[in-house]
Amino acid sequence: MKTRAVIVEDEPIARAQLRDLVSDVDWIHCVGEAADGLTAVSVIESTRPDLVFLDIEMPELDGLGVLRRITCDPAVVFTTAYDKFAVAAFELEAIDYLLKPFGRDRLYAALDRVKRAVRGDGDVPVTHRAHEAIEQRDRWLTRIFVRDRGRLVPIAAADIERLEADDDYVAVHSRGRRYLVYLGMNEFEARLDPDRFRRIHRSHIVNLDHVASLSPAEGMRYEVVMRDGAKILASRTRSRELRGLAI
Amino acid sequence: MEKSNSSRRALGGYAWWIYAAAWVPFAGFYALALTTTKTLPPERALIAGFFYVVPIALFGIGVWWLSGLLERRRANALTIVLVHVVVGATIAFAWLGIEVAQIAAQTGFSGAWAAAQAFAGFQVLDGFFVYCVLAAGSHAIRFARSLREEQARAARADALRMRAELAALRGQLNPHFLFNTLHTLTALVSREPNTAEHALERFGDMLRYVLDVKRAAREDVTLAEELRFVRDYLSLEQLRLGDRLRVVERIDPDALDCVIPSLTLQPLVENAIKHAVAPRVQGGTIELAAALDDDSLMLEVRDDGPGANKPDVDAAVGMGLRAVRQRLETRYGIDASFSITTAPREGFAVRVSIPAHVGTVLMPAPSLAPPREGTTIPA
Question: Which of B23, B183, B203, B345 has the smallest number of CB atoms closer than 10 Å to its CB?
Answer without folding.
Answer: B345
